[in-house]
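Good day; I would like, with your permission, to put a structural problem before you. The record follows directly beneath this note:
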Amino acid sequence: MKKPEAIAILKEKYDLNLHKSNTHFSKENSAKPVWWFEIPLSKVEAGNFQIINLICERSGEVNLLQVPTKYFRDNMSGVTSHPISILPSQPI
C-alpha cells in the first residue's frame, strides 16, 4: 500500500480532512515492528496545520495517529535533529 491509497481509504471510511501536505505515511519496518516518520521541523514550527496525521501501515492494515501540532511544538526540547550535509566534500 502507498500513501495515496491509505489516504483514500481513511477519507472514505471516516470522512477526514487528510491530504499529502498534512499527512505522513510509513510502512512497518521489516526488521522490527516500528514505523519511522520524517516530519520537517519547518512544518511543526510554521503552525500551518492544527493536526499532523501519521498513517502507520502493517500488512495491509492502516492505523491513523492524529497528533496536534501544538504537542510537537510543546515537546521540541525532547526532539533531536541531526543535520547532514549532502554536499560533496572539498579537497583540502
Q: What stands out?
A: Residues 5 and 11 are 10 Å apart (CA to CA). The longest helix spans residues 3-14. Residues 3-78 form one domain. The longest strand covers residues 51-58.
